[in-house]
Design a protein that fits this description.
This protein folds into two domains: about 210 residues, P-loop containing nucleotide triphosphate hydrolases (Rossmann fold), CATH 3.40.50; about 110 residues, 2-Layer Sandwich (GMP Synthetase, Chain A, domain 3). The chain has ten helices and eleven strands. It is α/β, with parallel strands linked by helices. Helix 3 crosses helix 4 and helix 6 runs antiparallel to helix 9. The strands form three sheets. Strands 3-4-2-5-6-7 form a six-stranded mixed β-sheet, sandwiched between helices. Strand 5, helix 3 and strand 6 form a beta-alpha-beta unit. The structure holds guanosine-5'-triphosphate and magnesium ion. The site of magnesium ion (MG) has 5 residues, from helix 1. Its main location: cytoplasm. An essential GTPase that binds both GDP and GTP, with rapid nucleotide exchange. Plays a role in 16S rRNA processing and 30S ribosomal subunit biogenesis and possibly also in cell cycle regulation and energy metabolism. It is a peripheral membrane protein. This is GTPase Era.
Length: about 350
Amino acid sequence: MSSTPEGSSKAKGRPAQAKGKADRPAPAPAPTQQPTGFKSGFACFVGRPNAGKSTLTNALVGQKIVITSSKPQTTRHAVRGIVHRPDSQLILVDTPGLHKPRTLLGQRLNDLVKSTWAEVDVIGICLPASDKIGPGDRFLVAEAAKVAKTPKVALATKADLVEPERMLEHLTQIQELGEAAGIEWAAIIPVSATSGFQVDLVTDELIQLLPDGFALYPDGDITDEPEETLVAELIREAALEGVRDELPHSIAVTIDEMGLREDRPEDKPLLDIYANIYLERDSQKGIVIGHKGARLREVGAEARRQIEALLGTPVYLDLHVKIAKNWQTDAKHLRKLGF
Ligand SMILES: Nc1nc2c(ncn2[C@@H]2O[C@H](COP(=O)(O)OP(=O)(O)OP(=O)(O)O)[C@@H](O)[C@H]2O)c(=O)[nH]1
Ligand SMILES: [Mg+2]
């Protein structure tokens, strides 16, 4: 699958940018003949955990660049995805779900959301149609209202899960939610990232609200996340599958080493990846490793499939399970794990 009209798409292994910042990147070499009226800029998706932000990001980009899961608080940094059109370039910033923080990690993630929406050109607020609007949404919308000048689009996500009557009720409530917070929505759009319903319309609407400008990324780039980060995330996604309760929150992944194996024929490359899965407590090890290592092997196999699909190279993946005691509440561990 490709995200560009030209049929090329790249996940670029650029030097790591300050994690979580929606800083503007160094502009790509300016094209000599940009059509007039070209639009470019940043939009972010915000919402409660599990609202469908990351799935929607992937749908708009047209390729999987961020991981998703049914567990809340999957996304842990602000990831940029790039949508290319002949007359525009939209940089989407997927953010962690805004929630009541219970750990230092949670606080950091919430701060990251707020610093991101202060820096973008458009804010897309994701409100899943399958859930009633709750106190968490009201809090989030009231906070977003403080970024007064930035246009806001309400996205009624997961439209495929509800009947038209429920959607109508949801849209009315979104309108009221905006009025209560003093927000005039630039648009309210029902969308389904999984069925594709109105995904292009969301792109159109976000682009319309961008300023005039030049392309900020080279044609064909779909994200500026370093390859190592993408790989670590795919391993984490595989490790999240089938685990419950507190365990998803306890999992973090780091890459020790990643590189093409030497002495391989040119047409048979092999990418060696040495990675660690960190947990918070010894008692969690058994679940992640499984009987005689069966679960860890499954996680490795699934992660390898995903990494190979993303990078297009056969992969040798070496996974180790380690403990970083209570890392979510430990500033030193958080730093080591990149937060
Ligand atoms: N049926 C349906 N499910 C969806 C849709 N979008 C997302 N989901 C599901 O909702 C769950 C959460 O999706 P994510 O995209 O990870 O949600 P998120 O808002 O990024 O979550 P956090 O990163 O935890 O804040 C996953 O199980 C998705 O498959 C949709 O349009 N329709
Ligand atoms: Mg997410």
